[in-house]
Design a protein that fits this description.
mainly beta; 5-stranded antiparallel sheet; globular
């Protein structure tokens, strides 16, 4: 049993995370950040849920950069091969579900 109060999680640096669970190679992690990540493609699918703050997600679709603003409760699904980068608007906490050890 584990309880995590997400608003209390503020690590030493951006994109640090606390591991919540692992389901046969699929990780569930809580991340905190106040800086953009980097353009990347995951080693599988990714579910990105904003729990606190706001994140502008940039992604490439047919070579063109698209953007979507994600607020608390919003979910971004990156299918296999989706190149993307998260740009938090101030501090944000996000729940990320993805293949273990993905980029």
């Amino acid at each position: 049993m584990k309880t995590i109060i997400s608003k209390n999680f503020t690590p030493a640096k951006s994109w640090d995370a606390v591991d919540i669970a692992n389901f046969d190679g699929t990780s569930v992690r809580l991340h905190w950040t106040d800086k953009p990540y980097r353009w990347h493609i995951n080693d599988g699918e990714e579910v990105f849920v904003v729990l606190d703050g706001a994140v502008e997600m940039h992604y490439r679709e047919q070579g063109e950069v698209q953007k979507v603003m994600l607020n608390v409760g919003d979910i971004f699904f990156a299918s296999v091969g989706t190149e993307h980068v998260a740009h938090p608007q101030g501090a944000a906490r996000v729940l990320v579900v993805e293949k273990e050890d993905s980029v």
